[in-house]
Amino acid sequence: MADNKVGKTVKEMDYVSDEELADLADLFKIFSDSTRVRIIHSLFKNEMNVQEIADTLGMQQSAISHQLRILRQSNLVKTKRNGKTIIYKLADDHVYTIFEQGLEHITE
Amino acid sequence: MADNKVGKTVKEMDYVSDEELADLADLFKIFSDSTRVRIIHSLFKNEMNVQEIADTLGMQQSAISHQLRILRQSNLVKTKRNGKTIIYKLADDHVYTIFEQGLEHITE
DNA sequence: ACCTCATATGAACACTTGTTCATATAAATA
DNA sequence: TATTTATATGAACAAGTGTTCATATGAGGT
Q1: What is the CATH number of domain A16-106?
Q2: At what angle do helices B50-57 and B34-45 cross, to 10 degrees?
Q3: Predicted local distance difference test score (pLDDT) of residue B40
Q4: What is the spatial distance between Cα B38 and Cα B57, in angstroms, rounded to a whole number?
Q5: Which of A37, A70, A71, A104 could form a disulfide with A77 if both were Cys (CB 3.0 to 4.6 A apart)?
Q6: What is residue A11's predicted lDDT score, i.e. its pLDDT?
Q7: pLDDT digits over B17-58, tens only?
């Protein structure tokens, strides 16, 4: 801790394995596409079905569906059925914090 | 705020422009490569010159130098000269917080 | 001033990624 | 059960990315 140049820690950052660091990179890779970022951001306010998301972003249903699959596989979104449509919502609010930190870095 | 599904905010997440969201994606894109993540992580402990980083990661000097250029252009690392070598250090400790949040998400 | 050597750069390559278009799938409702 | 329709999927393509190899650059030390 004493030789830690960047100050206090919440989770200790020493001794993180290369595998964990690779997983970390994979997580950030999901946030590295603006379509996915816009999808996530739009889900902060309301849960939505696929077509609503597509309409909100002004993109094709297929493109959105492909991206939703990636978000699903990473357990970042959850789904539930409502009649004929499938409604997407964020899996947890961890992403919110990560986005906040990122935005703070950008707008400084 | 009342209709915010994910709870309290530090920085308000409503009304973020598409341009800001694109910038956010670009920031995460930098963290989406495991080499860059490993470089950043190794700089948490000590500042290092290019060859030291390459040796630490077991990679070629050229590969590291290419990645350091990306980190430099994003103002994530700073350089100073020490004799013949150029020493890299993190520009600020914002990255540390972002990494922590990411690691917490992974290890939960 | 001239080497030396650490770092930076450019071209080439294989690999990955996001979108579109066309179509398959499957649950709902008549 | 048949039909409808929202969503998912696969192939194809263009664009982007990270590494290697070879070489340029330029500041340091003599």
Answers
A1: 1.10.10.10
A2: 110
A3: 98
A4: 7
A5: A71
A6: 62
A7: 999 999 999 999 999 999 999 999 999 999 999 999 999 999
Q: Are residues A6 and B90, on separate chains, in Cβ contact within 8 Å?
A: yes
Q: A48: which strand partners?
A: A88
- Answer whether A47's CB lies under 8 Å from A78's CB: no
Residues paired with B85 in a beta bridge: B82
How many angstroms separate the CA atoms of A16 and B99, rounded?
11
Strands B85-90 and B48-49: antiparallel
Judge: B13–A98 Cβ closer than 8 Å, yes or no: no
Measured CA to CA, the distance from residue A81 to residue B107 in angstroms comes to: 29
Strand D contacted by B59 CB (< 7 A): yes
**CA A99 – CA A32 distance, rounded (Å):** 11
